[in-house]
Each structure stands twice: as structure tokens, then as C-alpha cells.
Amino acid sequence: MSNVTASGHHAPIRPERDTFLADENPFEAMMARFDDAAQRLKLEPGLYKVLRSPEKQIIVSVPILRDNGEVEVYTGYRVLYNTARGPAKGGIRFDMGVTLDEVKALAAWMTWKCAVVNIPFGGSKGGVICDPSTMSNAELERMTRRYASAIIETLGPDSDVPAPDVNTNERMMAWIMDTYSMHKRHTVTAVVTGKPIEMGGSLGRREATGRGCMLVTREALKKMGRPLKGTRVAVQGFGNVGSISALLMEREGMTVVAVSDKEGGIYNPKGLNVPDVIQHLQARKTLKTYPNVEIITNEQLLALDCDVLVPAALENVITQENASRIKAKIICEGANGPTSAHADKILAEKGILVIPDILANAGGVTVSYFEWVQDRGGYFWDEETVNQRLEKIMVTSFQEVAAMADRHSVTMRIAAYMVAIDRVAKVHRLRGMYA
Ligand code: NAD
Fold it and tell me: Given 3.40.50.300, 3.40.50.720, 3.40.50.2300, 3.40.710.10, which CATH number is that of 207-360?
């Protein structure tokens, strides 16, 4: 108990890390920011140790019967990083790139993200190393159900609540909900979020992350005394987060000058018509054939002359190699971890306001929380109520992080970690250490 309560000591300074490692290893990149924030908060050494360690790491074998009759065994993970503030919350990804370090980092991010927006959840994440593009629908169903049953001890509305992530969707959440419910012998909708509306999903969930990005960008512009009208926006990634962010920013009067997907981007300095681009992509499956635009690469998009840059695709796209070329005044991190720890320093020196991922894209988990609340209450809200409550949380959270940044003269990223770590630490102190 004693080393977790008041001590007045700084958290220990960690040894210098290898540059490559801190940029490339997601857990190290997360820890670099965590350490900075923890030292500024003067986190006591015992609590520092507790918050650096994932609470639970589960590794499971996931055998499935392939359609050709052969058995294949995949490896799956579920990491519960911290549950002091409530049930763990975090997505499940199916991808060849899944590693335990990545899952740990993502679980930690979920912990800080839920704390930044002050919703009563801890953080978790899961993944299976597989290539879903080579699997049939039936194989995917068998794998999803077998993975869910392999981690069933951790799952539950009061303990660990998954959601979709890379290569998983509402269909898979329905299978997990069904598998869990079959084991429990009754229907438990609140065990997952991101479900189809018909079985307990929330209105507004699909747009929530992009809506959150728009709301925090609007607040950042207000804080900088810049008008929304005419603000030029470039968006990397035109999937769920990128396309909805672009659409809602345009509705607020901003001008979206460029968007991209994995094939590359399109640019028109006078502004794109976002609903038209969305329609074009849906019909033609490519941005490249969109008329009256300049075709650009994803690297060129990052360096465009614009006011707001929204990286909404992948991790680690803004690095020490390209950060100095960024001209935007505001970066709104729609994706998780788009900026490497070393790029942070370059962006700060350039005076760019970075709205960090754990704040910028927290709209998604906020409406997932609303979904869980609605499932548990058995009473569903209209979309206007969802959006109003989301707006209140995003605006309040932005202001709390901005106030922390001003008070300590730190970046919004470090301030967001400070707000989050402080909230998790306070609960640990109140609960005391069962050690
Ligand atoms: P998505 O699959 O709907 O869209 C991803 C987009 O990125 C697609 O347009 C794809 O073409 C593009 N892309 C892929 N590889 C690319 C590359 N190499 N260069 C440029 N673009 C590339 O995914 P999403 O749900 O929009 O998620 C995007 C990011 O936002 C991820 O980092 C995800 O973890 C994060 N995020 C999503 C949510 C959510 O609610 N969907 C919530 C929080 C964070």
C-alpha cells in the first residue's frame, strides 16, 4: 500500500531507448508518452509500476476446420490492460500483423482513451493472427466463435466488452454475442458493442468517430481564433473515420481539398464535393477516376498546403522522416497511433497543434459506451440524443485536455495522457492496493 499512496517521488526515469524501437514498436511508442506524462504528474513509483503493466495477457490457440476438411490452428490474444475504472473495453482485430506488443499497446491506449473522455471503462484489445481475405464466411464464423469461446472467462458486460477493429465488423460482433449468450444460456447483448442496430446496436455509432473528429477540430479552430469557413482540410484514409470526418467538416463550412485511400489521393485546391466523392468511391471502387482533380500520393497528401490534416488510415504515417514537411496548423488524429514518438517533437517545434488519437478518435468508444448503457437499460435513444450527448463529452474533454496543456505548457498529447493517467491513478489510490 505504502508505495502506491503519497510519496512525492518522481516516476523513475527510463533508460534511453533505441530510436528505431521507439518509433516502430507500438508498445514502446505508447510507453514513451506514458513516461513523459507520468513524470510530469510526479506519479509515485509503486503506481507507476502498476500502470506500466498489463493486468492480464491471454494467449490462445484457435483451431478451426477449414472448408477443405483440414484443421488450421491460429494464435489469438486478448490483453486487459487496466480495469480500475470499470469493465475493460477494446476491439478485436484479425490481421497477419497482429503481435502481442501491438495488442498490449492498443489495450493501453484504450485505457487512456476511456479515461480521457471520462467514461467508466478500462482498456483491452484482442487479435488473431490470420489473413481473413483468404477465408470463407463460414471459416470466419467458426474462427470468431472459437476465439470467443477460448477467451470466454474474460468476456462479459461487467468484465470485458469487445468491439470491431481492423478486419472485424458488426457481423462478427453478432457471432460473439451469440456464442457468449449460448454459453450463458440467455441473451446478453451488452457483451459486445458495434452490433447491428436490430440486436442492440446504437444509432449514431457508425458516424461517431468521424463526428468526434469534426467536433474536436471545431474546438481547436475556436481555440486558435480561426474561422471554420474556408479552413482547408486534407484527409488520409477514406474509410469509416476519414469519409465521415470529411463529410461533417464540410457540413460545418470547412473546405476539404484532398482525400486518399490505400491507392493514393485526389486533390483540388478549390475544394472537393465530399458526398459526390463518397458516391463515386461506392460506385467505382476507386478514387483515381474522380474528375477534375490532381492525383497525388499519400506522402504528398501529408505535405499539402492546408490548415487541418486528418490522418485516418494507419499507424506510424507521420515519422521523423516526413514531419518537417507538414504544413497544416492542426493535425486531428483520426487513426490510432498515426504519429511516431520522434515526430511528436518535430511537430511541437513547428508549433502544430496535434489533437491526439486518444482524444480525437474517442467518439467511437463514447458511443460504444452509450450502446452498452442502452443494452443494459433495455431502453434505446434516438439519434439526436446520441449525437447531443456525444458532443457534450467531446467538447468537455477537449477543453479539459486544452486546460491541462496550458497549465503545464505541454502538448495536447502529453496533456491527454496526463488527464487520463491522473484519472486512473486517482481510482487506484481510492481503491487501495490489494497487494
Ligand atoms: P476503414 O477500414 O473503414 O478505412 C481505412 C481507410 O484507410 C481506407 O480508406 C483504406 O483504403 C485506407 N488505407 C489503408 N491503407 C492505407 C495506406 N497505406 N495509405 C493510405 N490509406 C490507406 O477503417 P476505419 O474504421 O476508418 O479506421 C481507420 C483508423 O481509425 C484505424 O487506425 C482505426 O484503428 C482508427 N479508429 C477507428 C475507429 C472507428 O470507430 N472506426 C475508432 C477509433 C479509431
Answer: 3.40.50.720
